[in-house]
Amino acid sequence: MNIEMIDAAKARIGRFVRRTPLLSSPFLDEVAGRRVFVKAECLQHTGSFKYRGAKSAITALGAKELKSGVIAFSSGNHAQGVALAAREAGARAVIIMPGDAPAVKIDNTRRLGAEVVLYDRETEDRDEIGGKLADQEGLTLIKPYDNAEVIAGQGTTGLEIAQQAEEAGISGADVLVCCGGGGLTSGIALALQARAAGLRARTVEPVDFDDVARSLATGCVQTNKRKSGTLCDAIVTPQPGALTFPIMSALCGPGLAVTDDACLRAMALAFERLRIVLEPGGAAALAAALFQGDEIQGDAVIVVATGGNVDRAVFETALAGMPAGQ
Amino acid sequence: MNIEMIDAAKARIGRFVRRTPLLSSPFLDEVAGRRVFVKAECLQHTGSFKYRGAKSAITALGAKELKSGVIAFSSGNHAQGVALAAREAGARAVIIMPGDAPAVKIDNTRRLGAEVVLYDRETEDRDEIGGKLADQEGLTLIKPYDNAEVIAGQGTTGLEIAQQAEEAGISGADVLVCCGGGGLTSGIALALQARAAGLRARTVEPVDFDDVARSLATGCVQTNKRKSGTLCDAIVTPQPGALTFPIMSALCGPGLAVTDDACLRAMALAFERLRIVLEPGGAAALAAALFQGDEIQGDAVIVVATGGNVDRAVFETALAGMPAGQ
Q: Nearest by CB to A21, which of B18, B26, B271?
């Protein structure tokens, strides 16, 4: 993995992906005690950054692979990204999804033309199911993070952050990234290393699912004891990726962990102050910026708001926590 | 008013205003039966396009006027725009607001450093109150739409739409604009006339408050019988502006009118499919695009989503109308 691969991905996908805005609000700056800049990837096509990586991987395939089709496993956002990118390429897409994924994500994936196969997150192994189907039907597996072209595609987010930070006059800051397997974080870290040396990528995960933070702290891969049980379903993974961990280990600052409650409060503030919709996992980095400021350095912080595919009930829970009269 | 004034406004305010994205979703295209592009001005500073006009007017003031300060009357969005632009200029701002404006707008205006004076929308005349205060304290009145520099500032939205439509390959389309006094609509209409001749501005207002549509249809200024009683408080005005009506009359297509219920449904779809937060008045144009397609021409439509400053209770009402399981 290197910056040339990210530049190449940008050349392939640049005219399809949305250059998402870097938002801010004086009210959020007040809460955080420093300037807060939010890269709103919830406004990306399909509602999350995952479209970048999927588009990068699928535009890198040959004609024969496209003709057979692709397969992916995902709690929802990668699924939608792959489904749309495959449809745009005229390719078949089969998506393996956990049965407890938000209904809206399963429904959207189907409506984007993909075939959805559900599995049980507690008792079944998605890798095994996906691998078997790929073999049987000649499908190319698009892994959600342990795929170099996916990482390169996510890295285009980092190219934009480098440029937008310069436009905003930010030369040094932590860049907090909601982190599952590390595809987005490692892509951004590589892009920042090459294009914005004063910016440092850092992971944000749910408490009890902070495998990446613990892996970074100890220097070797750590796993999570639990497989489910957080509202941040989008960023729950068993352990850091084989491709992503060495990159994060070399380039990232210490990882952070946030509670579900902090994510819900961040969602409410994003609703009120930025007028964007975030899902809990997509609000984790903002939650860290707003409520765990003592773990961050500098007078500015950049946050990647990674996704906005949230069930109405969960969003209402976030709004219900707002002060009365708001 | 002419395009040179809009270009001049852009030169003054271009580096301060946010170039808001033009969003889209295949799911919205499906509902509308044509491609729908949403100019998301809810993502503008202070949560609405009003910051553009306020910034334009205040950056056009002389040193003496800035030293005395400015005054504005507004149901909320113009108030916040003026408050922020005044604070950025180090100028005093007094804002006359209706007592029934959403609590969040009154609170935000105060927190942006302005002095807020409340009045009763049914029994008092805001123009009289504002005029008296302006005289007594030497404040410069920044009218919400009948001010050439305000119209020029709002017109910068039209410059961006012309450019973004070209990037998206749209050469001919209706551009639907949520309309109160017509400042934004007339600014956009002037910009499109000069820079995107195939795009035509059209107003969207609440049913029973469609003074502009009726004025356009009859060729002379019509008023509304009611002063309040719609969720779309942001776009309720007694009649079209003296400066704005001649421009709209010369350049705009027929006006449209939408129900509060249609605006709530549009808010829910914007939440689900675009991950943006809209207030009812800011969703009126989207409502027309989605649910009144037989009144629109062409295979694409552009919508200006003008604002996102909404009380939590109203937003929850919009979400409650969504189909179950979403």
A: B18
